[in-house]
Amino acid sequence: MADVEPLLRTESGDAIGGDAAARRPVFELFEGFALTSVLASLERAGLLARLEGGSVPADPSEGRDGLPLATLRYLAQRGVVEEVNGMFTLSQRGREICKDKGYLVWLQGGYGHVLASLGDFSTGARRYGDDVIRDGRWVADGSALIGRDDVSPHATEVLTGIDFSHVVDLGCGNARFLIAAANRFGVTGVGVDLAPEACEDAGHAIAAAGLEDKIKVRCGDAGDLDAIPELAEADLAVAFFLLHEIFEHGREALMAYLRKLGSIMPRGAYMLVAEVQPASGAPDEKWRPEFTLLHAIMRQQLLTAEGWHDAFVEAGWSRHEVRDLGLPGAVLLLYQNTAPAGAEGGE
Ligand SMILES: C[S@@+](CC[C@H](N)C(=O)[O-])C[C@H]1O[C@@H](n2cnc3c(N)ncnc32)[C@H](O)[C@@H]1O
């Protein structure tokens, strides 16, 4: 088919609404923001599952104000779904995005309102922690979805190489790791998380998995190691995306934490840690700049793999294995406790 000549052109010869708009970077941001909001919101309302499960009919009478159909049409216009014979189905691009939807849920559900307050945080009109906090449920749910593909397979592979039977998960979120570990390795576990919504979700997930006799979750501060007596019997402590919260209180606080953990846990016990490294400044880096900025808002700094290594070694832990995770710039660190029982030296 011959190209249709546009009716209007700018002075530079671009078709109005065509090439010129395509070259304006603002519309890429505009679309990304809208699509992120729409997809995360559908997931949070439990509606994305329908599309992930198969085809959805174009039904103008469905839902409130015809919004389901308007949304499906929007997603088709943006290439996330395809409409064939009145049925909407995820496109290849849509399937790829849904596979990684945890990133959208984490960002929009957990931190959307936090990012939107950045101007006020910068002027001092509001303060993170006092006036605005992240949403614990969607941080935990988003993290669990991200972890499903980008952490768990790597963690399982690493853990296959060691012996362990009792796990303590520090900052366990919705207990997705403990449930997977109990199913895969037959171990028992205790989880501790500060967010009541995450603990509530964890309770439901453990019950749904029929693992109440193997896994317990408590709502509490994982920074208070004295309140976690199970550590004395644990041969594996897990801290996925938690240790930077301890580092928030300074390097000395982190060192004291790691030393104390080593003094409570049996000699030879393991610690498995996942952390995102800070943005490196490389062009086109994915995820790390946003993760770094959000943690700066929360007054938290991130460490490189070398930074974590130095801290662990100084606190009496030896490196067993370090590898990259599926999340851009994230690392999985497995260290072993070399401290003699009861020793809390260096404090
Ligand atoms: C990014 S999420 C990761 C959740 C889980 N570890 C995972 O990988 O799916 C971090 C979790 O740590 C929890 N958390 C943060 N500070 C904590 C603290 N001091 N004590 C216990 N939990 C904490 C948060 O509530 C959140 O659920």
Automatic annotation (TrEMBL):
GO terms for biological process: methylation. It comes from the Bacteria. InterPro entries: CFA/CMAS, Methyltransf_25, SAM-dependent_MTases_sf. Signal peptide: none annotated. Residues 167-259 form the Methyltransferase domain. The keyword RNA-binding does not apply. One of its GO terms (molecular function) is methyltransferase activity. The keyword Methyltransferase applies. Keywords: Methyltransferase, Transferase. This is SAM-dependent methyltransferase. It comes from Conexibacter arvalis. The lineage of its organism: Bacteria, Bacillati, Actinomycetota, Thermoleophilia, Solirubrobacterales.
